[in-house]
Amino acid sequence: MVLLRRMKRLSTLIILSIFLLSNSRADEGMWLPTMLGKLDMAEYQQKGLRLTADQIYSINHNSLKDAVVLFGGGCTGELISPEGLILTNHHCGFGSIQSHSSLENDYLTDGFWAKSKEEELPNPGLYVSFLIRIEDVTAQVLADTEDNMTEADREKVILKAIRQIEEEAVKGTQYQAEVKPFFYGNEFYLFVTETYNDVRLVGAPPSSIGKFGGDTDNWMWPRHTGDFSLFRVYANKDNKPAAYSPENVPLKPKMFLPVSLKGAKKGDLTMVYGFPGSTSEYLPAAAVEQLVNITNPARIRIRTKRLSLFDEDMEYSRAVRIQYASKHAGIANGWKKWIGQNKGLKTADAIGQKRLQQQEFQAWVDETPERKTKYGKLIPTFDSLYLALVPYSKAIQYFYEAALGIEAIDYALDFQSLYMKSVGGNEKPGDIPKIAASLLAGVKGRFKNYNQETDRKVCKAMLDMFFHDMDPEYFPVQYAVIQKKFKGDIDQYADYLFDNSIFVDQEKVTSFLTSYTAKSAKKMKADPVFALMQGFLRVYTSKIQSSFFGIQEEITMLMTDYMQAQREWKSDKMFYPDANSTMRISFGAVNDYSPRDAIYYNYFTTLKGVMEKIDSSIYDYAAPQKLVDLYETKDFGPYGSGDTMFVCFTSTNHTTGGNSGSPVINGNGELIGINFDRNWEGTMSDIMYDPAQCRNIVLDIRYVLFIIDKFAGASYLLEEMEIRK
Ligand code: ARG
Ligand code: GLU
User: Does 274 reside within a domain?
Assistant: First the structure.
């Protein structure tokens, strides 16, 4: 909240930058649906949009927004039938599909199709949220702030206002409300939502379709992944949210999307509606420089090592493959994204471009004495703050990725609060048994996906990296022990840790927790893994945390001013706010691209490409025989076009993580695909959108229907959809 400082002063200076843009805009931007009225809709209409801003978003009557949901907190889903049927990605439904899978019913491997509503599977904890309305509450949030307030007072006043607005917004309803800052605290918006908790699994293709290409193809084009799954929202008899009950009935949504078989041709308008998670488009050059040169290289380097060790073990052991599949996917997803991001940012010379922009900005600032006073020091201050941040930025990656990359250390950290309570003496009665019991409850699940020998190898490699790459200033005290007792032999030290710690052994940790009393803290302190964890923690808290976050705080405060200044400077430009998991719309068009000299990528892929990639000896490229048969007999039904069955296509919509599962909608408001990824170079769009190389990757809806109907034989599901030829 510190970023909220000085906002009142600024807000009074806001020059609203609500102007129509001249002729053509690049497809950059993730717009709040309420901003559409300020955009030049005529331009989109020229490009093929047949809907009005009001049909896309309205609070007075049903609009497209009513067909789009936040799915499970981190993805997007869309309603595609009057009976609450929801479409999202396979990787968004993955956890639910996995939770219903067992050796006998392996839905991950074989797919799952409920043949009737009775067979649909409930998923405790899974929810979808509908947006009821958005409201600009900037004035109310800042009403009681004053220019000469201290930072802390300002924060208090703002938080109080936010809480009050949120409370009043949902009084007497079963809605939820949240106020979020935009443009680095220059504006605030209220979001009122309605959440349904009975969401059941309806269908999913086998992973060999839904995850075809796996991590090998992830973030890459050309792509051939059938990344979709189906769920259904249930409500009580009054169509209202209710906890799971067999009495619940399918939700009758206000709105659902018709599905079009017309497909996607180059140049067709595409609209992506969804919940992008986080972007940073307005950073100064120094910030991008730090990301490209310090942060990304450090985390890529560390993860490359960890992943290679996971790979080794997953290769030779099926058990380890299952244990580490999900961890591996998560670590690899970020790792590969950062590699692509750095490539893209370098190709586009993002740092150079930002520097140039800043020079122009500085020249604009220097034009008047008022601007000079207000904004004159911003750029040089950013430069010096980011310079000061360098050592901590690197160190923080080594703590999070390397030290906590050792699963045993990460696990021991979970016990720190139990330890503190036990030695602190100021605990409330019952605290200690409560924490111990909750840790005990987690033991089984934690060790189910833990392989001690893999972690031992990771530990050796991570410690080696840590002591090799880091400034000795950040070494934990155990480093001296390694030198003295183990003669500097890190492997021997790691073996000693793993041979003597309870934190790498399910039985030992279980019995330790079962008989836990405050006195047991002694044993924890003596545990070598716990001691090393505390060693790391001490360095982190004393030498990194306050410096890193202290500087970050200053930067964030300045960003409020810098954001404001950028909007004043380009007052004829319509600014879009950074993504923050609120509902957004982005406009684009189906398009091909050329990532490098002499390389050209077509904008669509077909089933023929799946056949070309199939290699049963590589896990990621196995495909079901039935799919091969359908291809060979060209049995595509109404979904193919002659000999061609379309699979995926690329478009120019500005998207990010969270847009997974987002509907891709044509100019008529019909569903033509599901967003699920971006091209590798294009992942730079979180920092800077480059129209030449940023593409979102979309699963063609015709492939979805083909798989449901022809592959799975679940054509009854199509009957409730509105399919337009
Ligand atoms: N890259 C996509 C996203 O960021 C898909 C991730 C899931 N797939 C995977 N192979 N890890 O979420
Ligand atoms: N796969 C991402 C997600 O889960 C979307 C891809 C992206 O980051 O653009 O949201």
Answer: no
Which structural domain, as residue segments, surrounds residue 75?
9-213+232-259
- Specify whether 495 is located in the same domain as 610: no
Whether 651 lines ligand 2, by a CB cut-off of 6 Å, is no
CB within 8 Å of 284: residues ≥ 6 apart: 354, 358, 378, 379, 382, 383, 386, 562
pLDDT (tens digit per residue) in 75-112? 999 999 999 999 999 999 998 998 898 878 889 899 99
Q: How far apart are CA 346 and CA 352, in angstroms?
A: 9
- Same domain? 631 vs 514: no
CB of 211 closer than 8 Å to CB of 222 = no
> Could you give the 3-state DSSP secondary structure of residue 680?
coil
Per-residue pLDDT at 33 exceeds 80: yes
Which among 675, 685, 686 is the best mutation to test ligand 2's pocket, defined by most ligand atoms within 8 Å of the CB? 675
CA atoms within 13 A on the CB side of 223: 30
Instruction: For residue 94, give the ligand 1 atom closest to its CA.
Output: 7
Of the listed ranges 226-230, 424-428, 461-465, 524-528, the one predicted with least confidence: 424-428
Count of domains in the chain? 3
Residue 274 near residue 584, CB atoms below 8 Å? yes
Is 340 a pocket residue for ligand 2 (Cβ < 6 Å)? Answer: no
- State pTM to two decimals: 0.92
Residues marked as catalytic: 91, 227, 660
- 68 with 166, same domain? yes
Alpha carbon of 333 to ligand 1 centroid (Å) = 6
